[in-house]
Amino acid sequence: MDLDTTDDPRVRGARRAILASVGVLWGGCLIVPTVALIDEPHAVHQWLGVVGVLILAVSYASILHTVATPSVPERNRRLLAGGFALASVLSIVLVAPVGPDDWYTWAWIGGATAGFAPLLLAGYARWVGAGGAVLVAVLVGAVTGGSPLVHGLIAASVGGSIVGMIMLPLRLWNLLLQARAGREALARLAVTEERLRFARDVHDLLGHRLAVIALKAELAARLSGVDPERSAREAAEVQSLSVAALAEVREAVHGYRAVDLGDQLLAVEGVLRDAGIRCTVRRAAVDLPAESATQLALALREGCTNVLRHSTAGWCTIELSQDTTREVRMTIANDGARAAASDDRSSGLRGAAERLAGVGGTLHTHLAGDVFTLEITVPAS
């Protein structure tokens, strides 16, 4: 499993927390062997143990680097797993004899091996490796004169603790990345569907008329030398068809721009909930001119896209109200703001602000902690 990179501050913080827990566990597993080295009376065993602990430290540091680095090639992962296994085997010879029997020195190393094996292996091999490390700890306990049962219990407990403290956060990490990818996919899908709808409408409107215009223009060109009067009639029909086609295009574009505010509220609520965001809509009865309602709906759509693409929101609240000054106000708030200045706007929000200004409306953004609020106002008349 890898910790993928991202520019989101919350995700970066989660990554640092996971890596910090790995580092703490890494150091904790070497405490007992290190203390046993200090108390070891035989100098040869002591120095051999130092070499063994250093080998383990380098091996553990490599694991930490692998967990911190995204997209590690599978070949490198297999090499690292092999190096980790070799370091663990060498530590049996170098570290296991160190210290009194009741220190169970290598049981802690065996537990670390069992806990870190699932980070490097895949499928059933990860659990076979973890179980094999616990079994080896039992055998080492029997060979070194310690209690095989205590060695096994220590190794199993340490290994289980490491797995629980690392594997579960990594699993949650992957789910977080998948959820973020799903939100972005929903936003892209909504834009694509709207583009396809508009393209289909334009094709249905213009396809037939443009074909007729092309045929009549060709006919007028052929008749210009032999029947000028009929050629003139055909040219007049081409002009008439062109004017009608232009009117239909303008009508289609107006229909495309005219978005129903009520329908847009329902659509946004559904999209956000499908993306796993708890959405609450508070809507009061408002009286708006058609163009103002359309611009408010387009700003709402842009605000929803902003939440899906640029936030890690867990909840979003949309409130629509009309005050006594004949001004309609819409606020869109979510708790997944990026660490950015409150006056920073995406290009979509800037475009929405410009369109709202055309009908006398305003768009303002506010950032308070992790809560980002989009405030939109339009005149009611």
Describe this structure in words.
- The protein has 381 residues and is an alpha+beta fold.
- It folds into 3 domains: 173 residues, no CATH class; 70 residues, Single alpha-helices involved in coiled-coils or other helix-helix interfaces, CATH 1.20.5; 119 residues, 2-Layer Sandwich (Heat Shock Protein 90).
- Helices cover 70% and strands 10% of the residues.
- The chain is built from 11 helices and 5 strands, in the order H-H-H-H-H-H-H-H-H-E-H-E-E-H-E-E.
- Strands 1-2-3-5-4 form a 5-stranded mixed sheet.
- A hairpin with a 2-residue loop joins strand 4 and strand 5.
- The longest helix is centred in the middle third of the chain and has 76 residues.
- The chain is elongated.
- The N terminus is likely disordered.
Index terms:
single chain, 381 residues, alpha+beta, Single alpha-helices involved in coiled-coils or other helix-helix interfaces, Heat Shock Protein 90, 3 domains, 70% helix, 10% strand
Quick one: biggest sheet? 5 strands, mixed
In terms of DSSP E residues, the strand content is 5-15%
Query: Unreliable segments (pLDDT under 50, ≥5 consecutive)?
Result: 1-5, 339-344
Number of helices: 11
Major beta sheet, strand line-up: 1-2-3-5-4
What's the domain count?
3
What order do the SSEs take from the amino end to the carboxyl end, as H and E? HHHHHHHHHEHEEHEE
Q: Would you spell out the secondary-structure blueprint of this structure?
A:
Blueprint: H1 9-28, H2 31-39, H3 43-68, H4 74-95, H5 105-120, H6 124-143, H7 148-223, H8 228-257, H9 261-274, E1 278-283, H10 290-310, E2 315-322, E3 327-334, H11 347-358, E4 362-368, E5 371-379
Parallel strand pairs: 1-2
Antiparallel strand pairs: 2-3, 3-5, 4-5
Helix pairs in contact: 1-3, 1-7, 2-3, 3-4, 4-5, 5-6, 5-7, 6-7, 7-8, 9-10, 10-11
